[in-house]
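ARCHIVE CARD
CATEGORY: sequence design from structure
SOURCE FIELD: tokenized fold
FIELD CONTENT:
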């Protein structure tokens, strides 16, 4: 009885691992978006300082 429960939990764990979407390029996309936002804020701030 314990073996069948153990086998069922292993099957469930394997299924969840197989269903995860690939995350290739996600970190790079987040970094690019972050750099773009930071660049935008800095450029607007510098433009504000320049016009004072």
């Amino acid at each position: 009885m314990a073996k069948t429960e153990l086998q069922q939990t292993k099957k469930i764990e394997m299924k969840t691992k197989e269903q995860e979407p690939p995350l290739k390029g996600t970190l790079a996309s987040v970094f690019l978006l972050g750099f773009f936002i930071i660049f935008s804020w800095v450029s607007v701030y510098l433009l504000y300082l320049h016009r004072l």
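CARD ANNOTATION: The two ends are 78 Å apart (CA to CA). Residues 26-51 form the longest helix (26 residues).
SHELF: design records, drawer C
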